[in-house]
Design brief:
The chain is mainly α and about 550 residues long. It folds into two domains: about 375 residues, Na+/H+ antiporter like fold (Up-down Bundle), CATH 1.20.1530; about 140 residues, 3-Layer(aba) Sandwich (Rossmann fold), CATH 3.40.50. Helices cover about 70% and strands about 5% of the residues. A six-stranded parallel beta sheet has the order 3-2-1-4-5-6, sandwiched between helices. β1, α20 and β2 form a beta-alpha-beta unit. α6 packs antiparallel against α17. The longest helix is centred in the C-terminal third of the chain and has 35 residues.
Length: about 550
């Protein structure tokens, strides 16, 4: 009978999470806030309808393990490197600076050093789920600030491992030196755990399992993933480490195995259910009466977090040569406290007092509510700051100005990714001088090493565009995938050079008309890709290929 009562409580929590998740999604909010509110409403702070808290807490711990396991499966050093130095270096600096700033601020108010460090660690991560969802909804994942946010978020996800170890160590007894020694010991245990599972996954599993057999049967990869995840979690728990840490290590190691592709999609179903239980269980710990009684403290904490994190990320962006407008937009997008902060807060039971825990949870929930709006206004605030605040536009680089003044009959290529490099090859084959503009210092350095006139700069800014002399160019080619920035660039070209032909890449069909209205000749990526796929099918079938309907684009 007790089992069925527990199941009824689980069903009640999932049902409430489903309903409130839908409500918040329709309100352009994150469903995570709905899950948290579901737990709050059903928990002891409100309706007190759920009594099987032990069952729900056990499921939530399993959910966190599966969440970190799935993140480990998606993690890739190669992917991190492709996002540039701001991902690895900037993300690391952001975590360290944010944690140190929050910890220092807490100690100024007389808070114990252990508690201050724990709060700093909890405040450092931003919300991967909320930010990427909001950026995706606005088709801004490929924008400069979108890629910056993605890089920092990936590093933050990776930083959860040492942060969890740090939080657990702070809950121990002894001096700070003893705590540091304990942290080092646990880090060594984590490395040993990773080494054991690396050996098992790369040398033992291939002897036992045939990758082809696993590919034919979808059930076997799921069983393999769950077994490895739970075994690693159990082993970490036996070593008195966080079970979630063991799951993350197992996910990272499986990501490089032949089984990774089949596992990624199938694990997500289980992860969704258990992660929902985790957020609901955190919501049950929220205390509405405490929030009402301490609303003044909450109204000071929320702006401090939003402004402080935004300022740190802006500073990090500027240190890594990110233009001001994109650094501001990135800071506003990542200014909230993320979902992994709930995990860190739950691990901090041995160091955080009860009031501190409630403040952290309440502040995190409120900052998550602000996230969709901050992501929406971030680029506009960044642009406004560049246009109206002292400092002017960002410099376009350090190349010889005389060379810029002599530009004539050239082709300006804006964006030097794979598409821009392909345009460059075509232009050079026609013996026409190319001029390249991009925001990535590494790609610009590579272009300059190849003898190309290339500059670092933001083409949507008038001073940068003026230095490229579009009025004397044969053509301007905009290859960047972010449609909003592309529209602004085309607009700048048209203001300076209304007669110069402008060609733009339209990655998404729905936004192609915006570029056309600004006067660009577009290459509709989705339509052209569809046509080329159709050509490939017909050629494979030995059928005649018709005329390309997009040949004029």
């Amino acid at each position: 009978m007790h089992l069925w009562n527990s199941i009824l409580d689980v069903v009640a929590v999932l049902t409430a999470a489903l309903v409130l998740g839908v409500v918040f999604e329709r309100a352009k909010q994150s469903a995570i806030v709905g899950y948290l509110l579901a737990g709050t409403l059903l928990g002891p702070a409100a309706l007190n309808l759920v009594h099987a808290e032990d069952t729900i807490n056990a499921l939530s711990e399993l959910g966190v393990a599966l969440l970190l396991f799935a993140i480990g499966l998606e993690f890739s050093w190669q992917r991190l490197r492709k996002l540039g130095a701001i991902a690895l270096g900037g993300g690391t600096l952001q975590v360290v600076l944010t944690g140190a700033l929050v910890a220092g601020f807490c100690m100024l108010f007389g808070i114990d050093a252990r508690i201050a460090i724990a709060v700093g660690a909890i405040a450092a991560p931003s919300s991967t789920a909320c930010v990427l969802r909001a950026l995706g909804d606005r088709a801004e994942l490929d924008s400069v600030h979108g890629r910056t946010c993605l890089g920092i978020l990936l590093l933050q996800d990776m930083a959860i491992v040492p942060l969890v170890l740090l939080i657990k160590t702070l809950g121990g007894e002894g001096s700070l030196w003893r705590i540091a020694a304990q942290f080092g010991f646990e880090l060594v245990l984590a490395v040993l755990l990773g080494a054991v599972f690396f050996f098992l996954i790369n040398y033992v599993l291939p002897l036992v399992f045939d990758a082809a057999s696993l590919a034919r049967n979808r059930e076997l990869p799921i069983l393999l993933a769950i077994t490895v995840c739970l075994t690693a979690s159990w082993a970490a728990n036996r070593l008195q480490l966080s079970p979630a840490l063991g799951a993350f290590v197992a996910g990272v190691l499986l990501a490089e195995s032949p089984y990774a592709v089949g596992i990624r999609a199938d694990v997500s179903v289980f992860r969704t259910v258990f992660v929902t239980m985790f957020f609901a269980s955190i919501g049950m710990l929220a205390d509405l009466e405490w929030a009402r009684a301490n609303w003044q403290l909450l109204t000071m904490a929320v702006p401090a977090v939003l402004v402080g994190k935004a300022a740190v990320i802006w500073l990090v962006g500027r240190l890594f040569r990110l233009p001001r407008r994109h650094a501001i937009a990135s800071g506003l997008c990542l200014s909230q406290i993320g979902e992994f902060s709930f995990l860190l807060a739950s691990e901090a039971g041995g160091v955080l007092p009860e009031d501190g825990f409630r403040l952290v949870v309440s502040t995190a929930v409120v900052t998550l509510l602000f996230t969709p709006y901050l992501v929406s206004v971030g680029p506009r605030i960044g642009l406004w700051a560049v246009q109206h605040l002292p400092g002017g536009d960002d410099a376009a680089g350090t190349d010889d100005d005389a060379a810029g003044r002599s530009l004539k009959d050239h082709v300006i290529i804006i964006g030097f990714g794979p598409a821009g490099q392909a345009v460059l090859d075509a232009v050079r084959s026609a013996q026409i001088q190319p001029v390249v503009l991009d925001l990535n210092p590494r790609t610009i350095a590579a272009a300059q090493a190849d003898g190309i006139y290339a500059r670092i700069g933001d083409a949507s800014q008038s001073t940068v565009m003026n230095e490229l002399h579009p009025e004397s160019a044969r053509a301007v080619v905009v290859t960047i995938p972010d449609h909003r920035t592309a529209v602004q660039i085309v607009h700048q070209v048209r203001l300076r050079a209304p007669q110069t032909p402008v060609f733009a890449r339209a990655r998404y069909h729905v936004y192609a008309s915006e570029l056309e209205r600004e006067g660009a000749t577009i290459v509709n990526e989705e339509s052209y890709t569809g046509y080329r796929l159709g050509v490939a099918v017909l050629q494979e079938l030995g059928l005649r290929v018709g005329v390309d309907p997009h040949a004029g684009e």
